[in-house]
Design brief:
The protein has helices at 18-23, 59-67, 89-94, 105-114, 128-138, 143-157, 172-188, and strands at 7-11, 33-35, 38-40, 54-56, 71-77, 80-85, 98-102, 119-124, 165-168. It is α/β, with parallel strands linked by helices. Helix 5 (128-138) runs antiparallel to helix 6 (143-157). It binds guanosine-5'-monophosphate.
C-alpha cells in the first residue's frame, strides 16, 4: 500500500514569487505533487484559467461552501474570500500524492490545527523594497488595493516564526532547489 502523502503548505507575502518558485518543480515526478486549486471570489488576472489557477466563484457560492463544510480552511484577504476545497485533499493523500496548498497565514493556522503534521514553508523576499517593486510590477489593481497588499505583506512577514522552514526567494532556482530538498527529506523520513 502507498505511504500517505504529505500535506505541504507554502505561504509568503503576495508578490514574493511563490507561483514562479513552485512552477520549477511542481511537475517533477519524483516529488509526486498535486496542487490544491483554491476557491476565490477575486476576479481572474489576465491569463488565469478557471479550475487551473483558482475556482472563480461569487460570494454567494463561497458562503454556501463555508456553510456546507466543504472547505478545509478559508479566509478573507483584501476584500475577497479564498479557501481550500476539502474534496480531493484526503483522497489524493491516501493515494500517496503530496498535496501542496499555496495559502496565506490565517489559512496555514487553520490547517495546522486540523493536521498538525503538515509541512509548512514560508517564502520571504530578499527585502521589503524588492517586494514592493514586484507587487507594483505585476499589479493590475488600483493603488488602494496595492497599499492593502503591502500592509498585509508586512503583517505576514511577522508570522514566519510559526512555519517550520523559511526560504528566501533571492534566486528562483536556488529557492526551488531548497524546497525540493525539504520535500524529499520529508518523503523519506518522518520528522
Ligand atoms: P492572490 O490574489 O495574489 O492570488 O492571492 C492572495 C493571497 O491569498 C496569497 O497569499 C495566496 O497564497 C492566498 N491564497 C490563495 N488561495 C488561498 C486559499 O485557498 N486559502 C487561503 N487561506 N489563502 C489563499
Amino acid at each position: 500500500m502507498n505511504k500517505k502523502g504529505l500535506l505541504i503548505v507554502v505561504s509568503g507575502p503576495s508578490g514574493v514569487g511563490k507561483g514562479t518558485v513552485l512552477k520549477q518543480f511542481m511537475n517533477d515526478p519524483e516529488l509526486k505533487l498535486s496542487y490544491s486549486v483554491s476557491m476565490t471570489t477575486r476576479a481572474p488576472r489576465p491569463g488565469e484559467v478557471d479550475g487551473v489557477n483558482y475556482y472563480f466563484v461569487n460570494r454567494e457560492q463561497f458562503e454556501k461552501a463555508i456553510q456546507e463544510g466543504d472547505l478545509l480552511e478559508w479566509t478573507e484577504f483584501v476584500g475577497n474570500y479564498y479557501g481550500t476545497p476539502l474534496s480531493g485533499v484526503e483522497k489524493l493523500r491516501n493515494e500517496g500524492r503530496n498535496v501542496l496548498l499555496e495559502i496565506e497565514v490565517n489559512g496555514c493556522r487553520q490547517v495546522k490545527e486540523k493536521c498538525p503534521d503538515a509541512l509548512t514553508i514560508f517564502i520571504v523576499p530578499p527585502s521589503m523594497k524588492e517586494l514592493e517593486k514586484r507587487i507594483r510590477g505585476r499589479s493590475t489593481e488600483p493603488e488602494e488595493i496595492v497599499q492593502q497588499r503591502l500592509a498585509k505583506a508586512s503583517k505576514e512577514m511577522e508570522m514566519t516564526g510559526s512555519y517550520r522552514y523559511v526560504v528566501c526567494n533571492d534566486d528562483v532556482e536556488l529557492a526551488a532547489d531548497i524546497i525540493k530538498v525539504i520535500i524529499k527529506r520529508h518523503m523519506e523520513k518522518d520528522f
